[in-house]
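re: the backbone from monday

yeah here it is again, tokenized this time
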């Protein structure tokens, strides 16, 4: 049986999760799933749009992650994954599929996050996170402590993959 893993990206909005996910998908054979991408796709589908909620989308994503893990594929999941309960739910999915679960915490100072968020209001490269939801994210976020691999905002991504992530890919 393959040595499958579930990598949970955890960090505040604008901490760099999507950027890291993109680079990892280009440099490894890990399957990637992004909450934001699923949200955008369902938002465009008139049938699905009526059912669109955090809970509904989480259920769809959890099923997709479980299937990929059962198929022997390692998966990296990009979402806030901001509470121990959310990360434990994902860890249980991995365990049920006989996969190891590793949380990757994106350690980005709040001032960098605020700067990136401000820049996004000008460029609109990604969806706008309104003040209310942004503030909720900050207040709700619990820094992961369970089996954590840390990625700092100023790390060189390719070097970090080579030096830190590769040991988990064996």
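seq for it, each position gets an aa:
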């Amino acid at each position: 049986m393959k040595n499958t893993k579930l990598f949970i990206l955890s960090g505040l909005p604008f901490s760099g999760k999507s950027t890291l996910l993109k680079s990892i998908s280009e440099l490894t054979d890990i399957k990637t799933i992004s909450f934001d991408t699923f949200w955008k796709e369902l938002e465009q589908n008139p049938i699905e749009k009526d059912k669109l909620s955090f809970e509904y989308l989480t259920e769809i994503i959890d099923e997709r992650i479980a299937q990929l893990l059962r198929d022997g594929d390692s998966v990296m999941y990009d979402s806030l994954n901001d509470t121990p309960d959310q990360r434990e739910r994902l860890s249980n999915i991995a365990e049920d599929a006989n996969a190891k679960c590793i949380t990757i915490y994106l350690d980005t100072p709040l001032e960098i996050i605020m700067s990136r968020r401000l820049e996004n209001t000008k460029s609109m490269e990604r969806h706008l996170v309104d003040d209310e939801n942004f503030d909720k994210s900050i207040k709700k976020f619990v820094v992961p402590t369970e089996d954590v691999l840390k990625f700092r905002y100023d790390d060189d991504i390719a070097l970090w993959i080579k030096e830190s992530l590769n040991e988990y890919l064996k």
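The chain has one domain: 5-168. The mean pLDDT is 90.
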